[in-house]
Amino acid sequence: MAWLGAGVVVLLLLGLVSVAFGTRAVSLEDIVAALGGDAQGTAQAAVAKRIPRTVLAMIIGAALALSGTAMQAVTRNPLAEPGIMGVSGGASLAVVIGIAGFGLANPYSTMGVAVLGSAAVAVFVYTVGSLGRGGATPLKLTLAGAATGAACVSLVSAVLLPRVDIVRDFQFWQIGGVGGASWDRIATVAPVLLLGALVCLIVARGMNSLALGDELATGLGERVVRTRLLAGLGAVVLCGAATAAAGPIGFVGLVVPHACRLLVGPDHRWLLPASAIAGAALLTAADVLGRIVARPEEIDVGIITAVLGAPVFIWIVRRQRVRAL
């Protein structure tokens, strides 16, 4: 409870920092005026645009962290994460095909296609990783996910190559970012992310049983297949919707669960809420950092998370030796 409370306080402080700092600094009076609905001045208008951006960064960060935590529980793989497992790559490919090939413009259709793409790649990676002796080992799942993700990136480039009219927009989207956020965009993605989060939280106790191994979990009365399917469904929905809204943002689902395990332990009834708070804080902080390090330009949040997450990825590989959780 203490760590959760501290996380909420840090998240609120980061939210204030995100509203106050950026390519243009604003005063406390401007922030109060913008919160009151006044967007007449330049500073107030800047604050009014930063508020939905901050909210979107928080919900996307929470969604990616929850998705990564659920994937690690389902696969018992310490390296499981939407980007590394290729799931976000599948969502990106599905979105690009839907827009470039079928002219999808409705945000709900785009989100639905992204979720289907995530689900298809998740099933494919788990199937490939389960082949051969030993079943779905962490090493085989990681290799299958990395190869599938690379293939999806190449296919995205192949689909976009003849469509020069939409290449520029997709280039920025592929990096991953929360710029251009609006309340309409948040209202579209928030219910879907909430549904995925609820599914994961409902099966939190079952995720604890999965950590003991399938045989022991079954002996304790846990319905392993149902728990794995529900947890995987929640992870796929969270990843697909978040990718459709903000592009493929990597490493949040890898870094956050491991950090939170050090603080609150492996019990998913505590780990999932802690990961959601920490993921929201991490992506908000990365967005603020991207706005201030290269003023007056911005660095997309997907680049910041990659720079922060790559060393953690290397540390986990060296520490865990790609063993199961």
TrEMBL record:
Organism superkingdom: Bacteria
Pfam families: FecCD (PF01032)
The keyword Nucleus is annotated on this UniProt entry: no
Alphabetized UniProt keyword annotations: Cell membrane, Membrane, Transmembrane, Transmembrane helix, Transport
InterPro entries: ABC_BtuC-like, ABC_transptr_permease_BtuC
Subcellular location: Cell membrane
Membrane-spanning intervals of the chain: 55-74, 86-105, 111-129, 141-161, 186-208, 229-250, 270-289, 301-318
Topological type in the membrane: Multi-pass membrane protein
CDD domains in alphabetical order: TM_ABC_iron-siderophores_like
Main location group: membrane
Gene3D superfamilies to which the protein is assigned, alphabetical: ABC transporter involved in vitamin B12 uptake, BtuC (1.10.3470.10)
PANTHER family named among the record's database cross-references: FE(3+) DICITRATE TRANSPORT SYSTEM PERMEASE PROTEIN FECC-RELATED (PTHR30472:SF1), FERRIC ENTEROBACTIN TRANSPORT SYSTEM PERMEASE PROTEIN (PTHR30472)
Family label: Belongs to the binding-protein-dependent transport system permease family. FecCD subfamily.
Protein name (record): Iron ABC transporter permease
